[in-house]
Design goal:
The structure is a homodimer of 207-residue chains. Helices cover 45% and strands 16% of the residues of chain A. Chain A is α/β, with parallel strands linked by helices and 207 residues long. The first copy, chain A, has two domains: 2-114, 3-Layer(aba) Sandwich (Cobalt-precorrin-4 Transmethylase, domain 1); 120-206, 4-hydroxy-3-methylbut-2-enyl diphosphate reductase, catalytic domain (Cobalt-precorrin-4 Transmethylase, domain 1, 3-Layer(aba) Sandwich). In chain A, strands 2-1-3-4 form a four-stranded parallel β-sheet, with helices on both faces. Chain A has a three-stranded parallel β-sheet with strand order 6-5-7, sandwiched between helices. In chain A, strand 3 (80-85), helix 5 and strand 4 form a beta-alpha-beta unit. The first copy, chain A, is elongated. The termini of chain A are far apart. Chains A and B meet through helix 5 and strand 4 of A and helix 5 and strand 4 of B. Strand 4 (111-115) of chain A pairs antiparallel with strand 4 of chain B.
């Protein structure tokens, strides 16, 4: 959040900002909308850390929700409404949400801004992982157990083939690999290259 | 158009700007969008003088159409799209148009602005005229024969009761009034008060 950033700067602490550039884009978009007098609606889970952070940049002038009725039920609908998305939402779901908000919230003298803040890299990664899962008889998804996008990848792949979510190479049980001909690997958006290399080496050693 | 305005100013001709404030708002909106790098889509009949004028303020960076497919069929869809409306369009039709454009034109990194430039006075006037026509056994719509909103009023009323579009009091034929108990009067958005008074006096004299 901007408050945290300011505090860190005030204490002269050196930081390395590891915020994903797409999340940063969503944050900047929220701030730009709020500063232009728009009420910011973030399409996403209000409890998700990224969503909380993006909303923080709207300086209190916004909400996060996955349900368009939440906005429709306001006592007074804002005339200026800016709609953006958590970076990991599905594009088609976001546009449906935006269209429903037009039905609910676009009235006399309204101005509505809809801005794509979705990370299409993640969408591509999901599509590629699904395609790979379709050909594999075992999938490994490498990433944090608390990462939403890693979980989503594992969820998608497990619908297609047997899938394990692992955080490190150590978690691979050799018996899993018996009789497998094609093993697929994918990883979450923030998984370190080092971790992926270790998994690859372990698999090479075991097969 | 801005060009015409500039030429008039260059020749030091005194002008009285009689542009309707709602049309002016649409013009300014088109200019603001174009200057911010948005491709302007005006929802309206491309041949209508108002629509041509509004588009003129977009400085060549826009189109006017009533058909969302016209925009969808572009070779390259603009990423930044500003959607506004001719002031006399029906609000529900405009929002349907905007929603279809979201389907067609909202893609990766898109920013879409939808701005209400409809004159809701005209909508109220139409609703009031329709209500009156429902109670009247004769309606007069006073306004120019070349005015789109006057024609629209006459069209709406004639579906409900016998209706005459007149430009001046002189056009009233006394036989029209025989046996009428309730005569309704409405007028186009730009009809002079004087003309309306003359019609009222003529009707009082004849009934």
């Amino acid at each position: 959040s901007p408050e945290l950033e300011a505090e860190i700067k005030a204490r002269h602490i050196d930081i390395i900002d590891t915020t994903c550039p797409f999340v940063h884009r969503a944050q900047v978009t929220a701030r730009r909308l709020a500063q232009s007098g728009f009420f910011v609606v973030v399409y996403g889970d209000a409890d998700h850390p990224e969503v909380k952070s993006v909303l923080g940049w709207a300086d209190g002038n916004g909400v996060a929700t996955l349900d368009e009725k939440f906005v429709a039920n306001f006592d007074r609908l804002p005339h200026r409404l800016g709609i953006l998305s958590q970076t990991t939402q599905i594009p088609a779901h976001f546009t449906e949400f935006a269209k429903k908000l037009i039905d609910f919230a676009f009235t006399m003298d309204s101005e509505l801004r809809v801005i794509d803040t979705i990370c299409h890299d993640i969408r591509k990664r999901q599509a590629a992982a699904l395609e790979m899962a379709g050909r594999a008889d075992l999938m490994f998804v490498i990433g944090g157990r608390t990462s939403a996008n890693t979980h989503r990848l594992a969820e998608l792949c497990s619908a297609v083939t047997e899938t394990y979510l692992i955080e490190t190479a150590d978690e691979i049980h050799p018996p899993w690999l018996q009789g497998r001909r094609y093993i697929g690997i994918t990883s979450g958006a923030s998984t370190a290259e080092q971790t992926i290399s270790e998994v690859l080496m372990k698999l090479e050693a075991l097969t």
